[in-house]
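_Per-residue structure_
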Amino acid sequence: MFSPKDEIGFVVYGTEDTSNMLMDDGYQHVTVLRDIIQPDVGLLRMIEDITPGPRDADLMDALIVAMDMLVRKTTGKRYSKRIFLVTNAGGPISLSDSERTDLIAQFEKMDAKLNVIGVDFQEPGVLPVPRSEKKKKNETFIREFADSVGGVVVAVHQALQMMSYFRGKSVLQRSAFRGCLEVSPLMKIAVWSFMKTAEQKFPPMKKLSAVSQQSANPKTMNVKLERSFYSLADPDQEVTKEEMVKGFKYGKGVVPFSEVDEAVLKYSGEKCLKVIGFAPVSSIPRHHLLSGCEAIVPEPGDKNAATGLSSLIHALNETESVAVVRYVKRNGGAPHLGFLSPIIKAEHEYLVYCSLPFSEDLRLYHFTPLLGDRARKSCVPSASQLAAARSIISSLDLMTAAEDEEGNHMEALKPRYTYNPVLQHHYQCLQTRALRPEAPLPPLDPALSNYITPDKKLFEEASEALKQFQEQFPLQRTERAESKLRRKFWGAKAMEDQEIRLESYVPDLADKKRKLDSELEKGLSLEKLVSSSTSDVGSVNPVQDFKTMLGRRDVDLVDKAIMQMKQRILQLVNDSIKDQFYEKAFACLQALREGCVKESESDAFNQFLEECRTYYMGKRRDDFWRSWIVFKRLTLVDSDETDDSSVTSEEAAAFLAGNVASVDSTPSQSKTKDSDEADDLFDQIE
């Protein structure tokens, strides 16, 4: 249950009934309690309720049923398979030598591992316990069978001890980067990268329905989160996602950025791992190491890559240097600055990547120096004080603070065996609440509290060094007179004889309230205050500016908004580097169409779309016309949408195919005037 992808089945033998896929072949009194599926709380509760069976069943029958379950589940799929066999070897085992040989061959063919947990098994180095001849014979058979298939046999108390250990969440070994370590354009080494250290986050908690939990038969307790946004000016008006835009604080104001602008301004790079240069390892301060590191290894099976990377590792180790690199994990990702340091051990060697901070990541705080010419004389320690500090450090050395089973000194709080108390206590409480909902949550395990509590034995052994340190740095309580804590300034002295009344500092709230009420009666609102500042279609958020201008009621800006939106669309298309601003221009075109329909100005939009087709189709910006307007089916406003349009639905449908030469939506004089305005508009953009 330590991995979300683990699947477990459960088979018991010696039961009164029989329930398995091989029951018709003579495998009796063997029951499959649980098929191979992902484990849940129900499995743990079921295991707690298991009692010894009344029948004597063959142990090897249960093993064969378990093997059959694994074969049926994993045929044609890639699985890591394992069978745990828990037995006291007290039942019958009827297996001939030939059947045993066939069973061993089948077990090796299915590529599974066997772990036997023996109850009351004879352990090596322990005085023999009286047992029956049948049990001795069965135990010998089980050990020989386990050895023949590469399995192991452990005593039940050892298994319980191993299972009681704290254990971290198992993580699949997946590569974080696959590419080339580019030392130079002429030297590239194929490498893979794997996460070496990463902070284990606290597991997220899901929200469930308390009402459903209290019902008699809750089908599901899952809840769905829905968010709604409303206008500050009009709390009854819901704001859709399309009407919102992100903004970044700049000084006291907020600068809005649309999704198109955000994508354009985002700095990204191509996937790479390039060496920038080399530097001494001593030039990198320890406090510059950011969290998380990765192991860089040669690509599996590439001998040339292994040879090249090994030579680089040993060269860095001999020169006590590191390689400073630029690291981009995937195409379009953010570039990182880091360094590669060599790790050489008897069984393997690799490079470790650690991230380095940029200038914005550093906190350049200045502190008073404790040593040197600039230090205060009162802060400079004496020779005896330095010796006391060295003594306490050596006395509390964690490298020899712990002891192994044989009494030898060893490292304490080794990260590999030091578990996070918060996470482990969470898992213990979670298991308790899942199995026994009414039981109180357990206290913190003593083994966990030792991780975060100073070792009493270690501090007792260092008591002499602690005493010397305290003598070298005595602490004295200082008491200052109460009169010295209070200081009077000339202003306080001058005000001693005057009576201070707080009412003189309180404004006339009644007058302010009357002024506010009178202004509200005149129709003053937050919406008018906000909208009054928008009178032009800007380049940052033109869609929102256009809608705001159309919604103005204090002044008519419809014609101005339409004309400026046309200009903005043409500017975005013509100034776009390839298709950089096409999405934003198309969004403006959609907003222009919706606004013209709403304001009964369909002729203005239809005339503008005709001019766009003439200006772009088959010419320099033909990709905008084909890939956006035609592909998105943005056509003329027809008479079915609004009564003021003279364009039929057939003409609107044929427009994008280029079958309509012109749309006679206005009288000739008005049409000529609009054409002249459109020509002037394009001339302005050019």
Remarks:
- The radius of gyration is 39 Å.
- DSSP finds 24 helices and 18 strands in the chain.
